[in-house]
Amino acid sequence: MTPVLQTQDLGKRYGKRWALRDCALDIPAGHVVGLVGPNGAGKTTLLKLATGQLEPTAGTISVLGGSPAATPAQLAKVGFVAQDTPVYAGLTVADHLKLGARLNPRWDAAMARERLTRLGLAPNHRAGRLSGGERAQLALTLGLAKRPDLLILDEPVASLDPLARREFLQALMEATVAHEFSVVLSSHLVSDLERVCDYLIVLTDSRVRVAGEVDRLLATHHRLTGPRRDPARLPADQHVISASHTDRQSTYVIRTDAPIHDPAWLVTQLNLEDLVLAYMDRRPNGDRRLDLEVQR
């Protein structure tokens, strides 16, 4: 099956600053991918490269087996909802549907009308008078009615209240089940990603720190707590992701495929937020074995 997103040595530079560099990804189809990282990590840059809004400075990127936005057929395969869930304030809901039908050859008018009726969005309402949650749902409807093979969403719920976020994400999950498309969802709200994503990418400092299926990542990462110990004394197959120490105690987050038998360690499992924070908190206390891992 063709990967939805494939990159090799991908980089984007603005002037002298690299917004993204040395990016290597190979994301299989059929996943809801969570893209997470702090502000300025390169998330939006990666998504704009994937949608053809930016050209790479270095390396290559392929989306659904083709060059981003290279042809009308390629454009038709990818839906995009930008960070500010863009809609046209002066246009009515019905106007947006007409515009969507004109611009998108796969347009599903019946699904768009049914969805907006279910949401209670009247056709004659102007987008500028809708609430933030309603505008987000209208933007999502436009993306879904395009019938894409890949839907890319750049922090679409960042400005919404908790109830509107939950409704948006619930609608997204229902649509992925019904129509079987892939999703890449950027967010800095890990709790939202935990609800919907089965594949994770963590970006920090313009680089991919970890990528892989969530279940696999959680199974191979552990927290070790025990007497203070130099990281050089850990087994070679225990790769330190983050570390903290007190006078008497060490706590490590490590990645390993092997069982942990050392009785000195209390071994605990991580949740998704623990995992993301470990990769974002790059303070290895001098451990030369701290590394990134891209799991496929």
TrEMBL record:
UniProt-recorded Gene Ontology molecular function terms: ATP binding; ATP hydrolysis activity
Disulfide bond among keywords: no
The keyword Nucleotide-binding appears for this protein: yes
The entry's keywords: ATP-binding, Nucleotide-binding, Transport
UniProt cross-references to SMART domains, sorted A to Z: AAA
CDD domains per the UniProt record, alphabetical: ABC_DR_subfamily_A (cd03230)
Protein name, per record: ABC transporter ATP-binding protein
Species name: Acrocarpospora phusangensis
